[in-house]
């Protein structure tokens, strides 16, 4: 077993769990995972309902309690909406997972090609693990700080029906509220981890293809079927980009919409209580919700554009007539532009991320001016 396949085997069960949370796949897998997914959705759904009921009963004053309740409602609603979209696109996500697994199972007869494959796959898994660590740290820190701030200011945003909020039950409600917030945050982070895993590996596949193309001059005489290998990998990469686009069709739109709302609420919150650390941590969470997707879209567009440039730099004119015809097929495919779109309407790239932040800041300024 290759080193990269060993790495994948170690992470496979965890990745499957994250994908199961995103797609609400509860018909297969370990029983404890299926139960945790079902209980997580039930807990977050009930939590959302309780916070909405609390908002209806509140005075409507824009204070810490009201802002935290709005942020929690937006965050948990986003989780539930992504679950619904994930169920609808479950087949596409699991197909992508299979394609990524096949990528790890690939074996090359040439040592240099094996090195290229291993290098990028190991690097992509390392990037995923680093992202997982920081997603967990930032999400948990924001949830913990928000819970602590609510406790210090004697605020309760999750009220249980038929239980009084007087002093005898208040401590229990604080503990219950903190547990639900942390649980919700953890499940949200797992959804984002699943998206990070898929996105990073699609980009890794493009990097591998790009490196293979760079070796065309050198390998075409050594490996007679090398052009066929490049065509095969190019077709797979394009199909996987299309599959990723299809998978993220609704989820990207949901993520964009809710992230804009979360950033807007958080900016309003920061204007009122700029000294609170929780504000900045939650703002960072809002950024983390949308920035990775935009970065993936930018990288995919950039790398697919570079493929044709890389091919032009090869000594294609030295190829045989048969190989030149094959080369033209690859070149035609490489000329097409590929990228991600949210709901087929908006390009998913860094420019879209900047626009989301600008929209949130603009609406925040308008609402702040009107409230004066």
From TrEMBL:
The keyword Hydrolase is assigned to this record: no
Localization, UniProt: Cell membrane
Topology term for the membrane: Multi-pass membrane protein
Gene Ontology molecular function: odorant binding; olfactory receptor activity
Record-annotated membrane-spanning stretches: 35-52, 64-81, 130-152, 172-188, 195-213, 251-270, 277-300, 350-370
A single GO cellular-component term on record: plasma membrane
Chief localization: membrane
Source organism superkingdom: Eukaryota
Family statement: Belongs to the insect chemoreceptor superfamily. Heteromeric odorant receptor channel (TC 1.A.69) family.
UniProt protein name: Odorant receptor
Species per Swiss-Prot/TrEMBL record: Phlebotomus papatasi
Keyword terms: Cell membrane, Membrane, Olfaction, Receptor, Sensory transduction, Transducer, Transmembrane, Transmembrane helix
UniProt GO BP: signal transduction
């Amino acid at each position: 077993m290759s080193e990269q396949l060993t790495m994948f085997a170690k992470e496979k069960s965890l990745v499957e769990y994250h994908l199961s949370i995103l797609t609400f796949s509860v018909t297969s897998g370990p029983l404890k995972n299926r139960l945790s997914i079902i209980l997580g959705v039930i807990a977050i759904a009930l939590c959302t309902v309780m916070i909405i009921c609390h908002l209806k009963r509140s005075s409507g004053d824009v204070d810490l309690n009201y802002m935290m309740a709005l942020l929690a409602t937006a965050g948990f609603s986003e989780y539930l909406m992504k679950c619904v979209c994930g169920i609808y696109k479950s087949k596409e996500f699991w197909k992508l997972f299979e394609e990524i697994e096949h990528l790890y199972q690939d074996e090359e007869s040439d040592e240099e090609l094996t090195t290229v494959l291993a290098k990028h796959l190991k690097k992509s898994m390392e990037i995923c693990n680093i992202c997982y660590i920081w997603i967990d740290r930032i999400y948990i820190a924001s949830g913990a700080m928000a819970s602590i701030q609510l406790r210090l200011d004697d605020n309760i945003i999750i009220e249980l029906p038929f239980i009084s909020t007087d002093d005898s039950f208040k401590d229990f409600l604080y503990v219950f509220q903190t547990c639900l917030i942390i649980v919700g945050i953890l499940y949200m982070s797992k959804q984002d981890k699943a998206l990070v895993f898929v996105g990073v590996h699609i980009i890794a596949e493009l990097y591998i293809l790009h490196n293979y193309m760079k070796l065309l001059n050198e390998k075409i005489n050594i490996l007679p079927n090398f052009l066929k290998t490049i065509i095969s990998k190019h077709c797979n990469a394009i199909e996987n980009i299309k599959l990723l686009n299809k998978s993220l069709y609704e989820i990207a739109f949901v993520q964009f919409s809710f992230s804009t709302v979360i950033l807007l609420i958080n900016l309003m919150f920061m204007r009122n209580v700029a000294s609170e650390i929780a504000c900045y941590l939650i703002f960072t969470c809002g950024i983390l919700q949308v920035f990775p997707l935009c970065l993936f879209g930018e990288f995919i567009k950039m790398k697919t554009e570079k493929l044709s440039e890389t091919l032009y730099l090869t000594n294609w004119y030295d190829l045989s007539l048969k190989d030149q015809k094959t080369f033209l097929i690859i070149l035609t495919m490489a000329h097409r532009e590929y990228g991600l779109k949210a709901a087929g309407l908006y390009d998913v790239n860094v420019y879209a991320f900047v626009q989301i932040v600008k929209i949130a800041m603009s609406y925040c300024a308008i609402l702040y001016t009107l409230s004066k």
